[in-house]
């Protein structure tokens, strides 16, 4: 039986632009003595992106808890982590093992959240088909996860939002 997270062949431009359901893929890791390289997007997908951001998340903390009104988001999540996606009235959770990378292609209107389940800072790389506009973010709050202490981080813009205020810049 084929692994459902195995990297799929390149999708057509029409499938990517009209993304209607979330896809999840385990990305292959290219290892050598220096470390690991992961290819998140193919050239056809890359040209359609209007925003890219690197997100570092502290242990036990959550990113997301929102959905996008118009943008299609592609996320590479490096484990250990937990991802939660709500689609078709059902919430699905995906555990990302240490050293594993899962890629999520999330269409507009699909709530998602990502929790760092490790002891070190977690890394997430996200691309979006909509440019980032701090004055009018494309995110709508939707709580899927709570912090370890029971608090809820709701609908923050993963490129900075309320957490970037102390520095005055978007990371």
Structural features:
171 residues, mainly beta, Jelly Rolls, 5-stranded antiparallel sheet, disordered N terminus, disordered C terminus
Question: Would you kindly provide a brief summary of this structure?
Answer:
The protein has two helices and twelve strands; from the N terminus they run αβββαβββββββββ. The protein has 171 residues and is mostly beta strands.
How would you describe what is shown here?
It is a single chain. The chain is mainly beta and 171 residues long. It has one domain (13-154): Jelly Rolls, CATH 2.60.120. It has two helices and twelve strands. It has helices at 13-17, 43-46, and strands spanning 23-26, 30-32, 35-37, 51-57, 62-68, 73-78, 81-87, 90-96, 101-106, 112-116, 122-128, 139-141. The chain has a five-stranded antiparallel β-sheet, with no helix packed on it. Strands 8-7-10-5-12 form a five-stranded antiparallel β-sheet, with no helix packed on it. The radius of gyration is 15 Å and the shape is globular.
């Amino acid at each position: 039986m084929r692994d459902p997270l195995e990297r799929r062949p390149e999708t057509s431009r029409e499938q990517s632009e009209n993304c209607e359901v979330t896809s999840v893929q385990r990305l292959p890791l290219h290892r050598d003595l220096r470390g690991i390289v992961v290819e998140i997007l193919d050239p056809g997908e890359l040209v359609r992106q209007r925003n890219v951001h690197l997100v570092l998340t502290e242990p036990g903390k959550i990113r997301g808890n929102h959905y996008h009104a118009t943008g299609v988001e592609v996320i590479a999540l490096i484990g250990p982590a937990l991802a939660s996606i709500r689609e078709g009235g059902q919430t699905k959770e995906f555990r990302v093992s240490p050293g594993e990378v899962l890629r999520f292609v999330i269409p507009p209107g699909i709530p998602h959240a990502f929790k760092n389940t490790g002891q070190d800072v977690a890394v997430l790389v996200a691309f979006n088909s909509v440019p980032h506009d701090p004055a009018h973010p494309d995110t709508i709050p939707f709580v899927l996860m709570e912090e370890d202490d029971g608090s809820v981080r709701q609908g923050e813009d993963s490129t900075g939002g309320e957490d970037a205020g102390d520095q005055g810049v978007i990371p």
